[in-house]
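User: Show me sequence and structure for the first protein, then do the same for the second.

Assistant: Starting with the first protein.
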Amino acid sequence: MGKQKMILDCDPGHDDAVAILLAAKNDVLELIGITVVAGNQTIDNTVRNALNVCQALELEIPVYAGCGGPMVREQVVAGDIHGESGLDGPVFEPLKKEREEEHAVNYIVRALMESDEKITIVTTGPMTNLAMAMRMEPKIKEKIKEIVLMGGCYQNGNVTPAAEFNIFADGEAAYACFNSGLPITMVGLDVTRKALCYPAIVDRMEKIGTKASKLFVDLMRHFNKSQKEVFGWDGGPLHDPITIAYLIDPTVLTVKPMHSEIEIRSEQSYGRTNCDFFDYQQKDHNSDIAIDIDTDKFWDIVEDALKRY
């Protein structure tokens, strides 16, 4: 049986960089393209960051620049966490790898429509590119196997009490994706906050001694510093790679089917993922929501990925 084709839509971002690292080399997934959106930083920064990560890891994967802002709301970025570049910490060689000329939304449509098999779409940033692609060509939904996203929470947010950053940054895009009728798995703060990259984890990965482990260590030392300053944690939660770890080994997460709705009309609670955990509303389940994580298994998957470089 061949590998499952996937597109990673991201906004690098330290944890997005690790998601790229995991997705590019494993026995389960074939990463056919990286599409980039504005989110953790502006589109120029996030595209450059994706290119730098691919070049540093010697990955021959095409990178496509996508939407530079959300569908409706004003733009927000996460400079307090990821720095002015969006990927502060590592020092990269002069950038030679170039982005593709094709716009990310056009690429998503083309790749899906031309594929003989269904493709998994993973989003680790605002869902703008995917939502726009589905609006532009609704037929692509027939070619999407599933959507796996890092975003949302059924408990407390991280930019407001109600909302997680990726959903808050473009609630309308998330609304379109959650109402697409496609299988969707939400990997939210409820589980990603349990995968804290403590200094002991950084030391463990440093001992691997590959170019990927060096990049990981450089990324995490800055990430942990900013997370300590903003949230008070000794280890930053490694949000985005959990989506990839789940696809590599679904037993890393416990998921629960629920009916979920994206709040886009409230001022106080814009971007909240209202997940009916107890099935009060008796509505059809439209999403699988991650509710627990095997952190030991997750870090083993990260370690295995770092050793592949």
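Switching to the second protein now.
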Amino acid sequence: MRYQISGRQIDIGEALQTHVKAELGETVEKYAQRPTEALVVFSKNAYEHVCETTIHLSTGLTAQAKGHAPDIYAAFESCREKMDKQLRRYKRRLRDHHDRRARPVEFAGGSAYILAASEDHEDQEPESLQPMIIAEMETKVPEVSVGEAVMQMELSGQKMLVFRNEGHGGVNVVYRREDGNIGWIDPRNSK
């Protein structure tokens, strides 16, 4: 597994990096046999340290956890415990989906943009409501089943996920509704 351990405006020593690799490696190997990458970022917020961890698995899933504590090691342990709980909770689902999958998850590239309103219609909206054109970032769009998409969205803590439905190759969206349920948008079914 490849590790990227860094700090935002704080120095991360070799002892902490060694501790993170050993403990996180043990936790992830217990539940996910083929992790590919772990990103660990430490930062300081007022009096407490914050540890944010993202783990990318070979099944195409991404798990995220965040821990807070006055001590940097305790912040990591809090984050590791949350990651352990998430992976333990989804172990059966991860294994079931992996067993059915004949080939690895494929990702297609995509870009997210905020588009500006045209300046010809200045009298329709005040200037403060017109968004600027900003290229947000490139993102990966996985080709997975609806169940895997929901699982990936829950593991990553996101409110929505855009994916290609492996059943028909079309672009779909799953999202968390305000009532706590999961919504699924499949434009192909709207015809």
